[in-house]
Design goal:
The complex is a heterodimer of chains A (239) and B (259).
Chain A (H helix, E strand, L loop, with lengths): L1 H20 L3 H26 L7 H18 L6 H20 L2 H4 L11 H29 L10 H28 L7 H16 L5 H25 L1
Chain B lengths: L1 H25 L7 H20 L3 H23 L2 E7 L3 E6 L2 E14 L6 E10 L2 E6 L4 E3 L2 E18 L2 E5 L4 E4 L2 E9 L4 E6 L2 E6 L8 E17 L3 H21 L2
Antiparallel strand pairs in B: 1-13, 2-3, 3-4, 4-5, 6-7, 7-8, 7-13, 9-10, 10-11, 11-12
Helix pairs in contact in B: 1-2, 2-3, 3-4
Classes of the chains: A mainly alpha (239), B alpha+beta (259).
């Protein structure tokens, strides 16, 4: 049932991406809006089945991340440029495609480990996802800043806002993980590869605030996003 | 000076990024090593110097707080020593916690498995501390003054009899006692090498089982159920978390004030 719904969702986002490329704006918007509603339904279905919030495996994290990204793109966006919307729909489509292609072992329902079932762990996971959402939003703008010949932004501080939010959410994620560790094992920092990479994201993003040149700042956002994607697969490989 | 500090800070950050990435792949334990502690202090020092050279009172304060945060982090890693103790079921142990001697006895230990029975979901131990019963699990520690006991793992441990001349004593991993006027601590048994790791006073020795050529020799006694608890004295954590919280609030303020 869930895999069939997922295929329909992929088709809807694919259509939205195609219509966007063909400049059929209203068709793209309608398929995107229907896609969001279906996405919400799949999310609720998953929560109902697993009896916990969806972030215990890569499939659930991607399901929630793409939904939050879609909400961010639809509801919290100042720029209405067609180019920005097309890039956003492209990213969404490929993330949902990746989610659909995941093997059944990645989609198996697993219970939350007893030690992870804590308020601070939920804060950690949610801040992590919100940091990704804002980072991916910044990534779209950074791409345009780097590769577009002329600036298309009326509101040029949008990149700063996204990066600031992303930086702060990564810090909250690291801070809440430290509190959780302190409460559960008496050591606020045990340094596993995942925690080390959060520190690396924070350090790379901190360079953004020490540079004034927009192109350099955009490259920093691009490198951070690529680091996030690289480390995600690296951590899975290490495990 | 401002430009030089900025360049220096960026160079330090890039070096940290590269070294952290390397540590995550090769050995994450590097992050807790002395060399890394020195690196953190260098980073804190550069933050401290830049706090005086950058404009804006809030930015100065934020850099200062971040430097204090890193310095206190290093201090806490150094002073809060962590020790593992193995408690065999039904045996009385005397342990020093925050300068008091506690009598601890493991009454019962249990492993709760996940629904698919493949993964240990929780470890639960019932202990008697000075006659009072407590339960310790992965999400429930036991506190005594500034000391905290956390559940680490749960195991079946083999006891070993250590002998020297006519004297002998029975120890479980993690226990220590005097033998021939020397303090011996039994760390672990390596069943691949077939050797027992003990430290005698300051030196660490790997003793082959029942090899009587050594001063001490060991042979297996019995297997019992045991719980591994980790003991740590909590000092300065509240300060660290308050500093981190203040730095976070200040950072949010500084970032969004400029937008």
């Amino acid at each position: 049932m869930e895999s069939k719904l997922l295929l329909i969702l992929l088709t809807l986002y694919g259509l939205s991406f195609l219509f966007s490329l063909l400049k059929k704006v209203s068709f793209a918007q309608v398929s995107q809006a229907v896609g969001v509603l279906l996405h919400l339904a799949i999310l609720i279905f998953r929560i109902f089945n697993t009896q916990h919030l969806p972030f215990t495996n890569i499939y659930e994290s991607l399901l929630l991340l793409t939904f939050l990204l879609q909400l961010k793109f639809l509801l919290f966006q100042r720029s209405k440029s067609d180019l920005v919307l097309t890039i956003q729909r492209t990213i969404l489509f490929f993330l949902v495609l990746l989610m659909t292609l995941l093997g059944p072992e990645c989609k198996t329902i697993s219970p939350v480990m007893h030690s992870l079932n804590s308020f601070w762990m939920y804060v950690h996971a949610l801040s992590y996802l919100l940091a990704y959402v804002t980072l991916f939003s910044a990534f779209v703008l950074a791409l345009i800043h780097i590769f577009s010949k002329k600036s298309i932004f009326n509101y040029n501080k949008q990149l700063d806002t996204h990066v600031s939010f992303s930086f702060i959410f990564f810090l909250i994620a690291a801070f809440s993980a430290a509190i959780w560790r302190q409460l559960s094992s008496g050591d606020f920092c045990l340094f596993n590869p995942g925690e080390i990479w959060v520190l690396i994201y924070i350090l790379i993003l901190s360079l953004y605030f020490h540079k004034e040149d927009r192109i350099t700042q955009s490259w920093i956002v691009l490198i951070t996003t690529l680091t996030v994607l690289f480390s995600y697969f690296l951590i899975i490989a290490i495990k | 000076m401002v430009n030089f500090m900025k360049r220096f800070m960026i160079a330090v950050i890039i070096v940290l990024i590269l070294i952290f990435a390397l540590a995550s792949v090769i050995d994450p334990q590097w992050m807790s090593s002395t060399v890394f502690m020195i690196l953190y202090l260098i980073f804190a020092l550069s933050l401290l110097i830049s706090a005086f050279s950058i404009p804006g009172i809030f930015s100065k304060l934020m850099h200062l707080l971040l430097a204090i945060l890193i310095i206190s982090f290093v201090m806490l890693r150094v002073i809060n020593e962590r020790t593992s103790y193995t408690f065999a079921k039904g045996v009385d142990y005397q342990l020093i916690a925050d300068e008091d001697t506690l009598s601890i006895k493991l009454m019962n230990c249990d492993i709760r498995k996940s629904q698919d029975k493949r993964v240990a979901d929780n470890y639960i131990s019932d202990i008697l501390v000075n006659g009072d019963e407590f339960q310790i699990s992965l999400d429930q520690s036991f506190s005594y003054k500034r000391g905290r006991f956390y559940h680490h793992g749960h195991d079946s441990s083999t006891a070993f009899i250590f002998a020297a001349g006519t004297d002998s004593l029975k120890l479980f991993p993690g226990q220590s006692a005097d033998l021939l006027d020397q303090r011996i601590q039994f760390h672990d048994y390596d069943d691949i090498k077939g050797k027992v790791a003990v430290s005698v006073d300051a030196g660490l020795h790997l003793i082959p089982i029942a090899d009587k050529s050594a001063m001490f020799y060991a042979f297996p006694a019995e297997t019992v159920e045991a719980s591994i608890l980790e003991y740590v004295e909590v000092k300065g954590h509240v300060f660290l978390f308050i500093t981190a919280f203040l730095a976070l609030i200040l950072l949010i303020f500084v970032r969004f004030r400029s937008l």
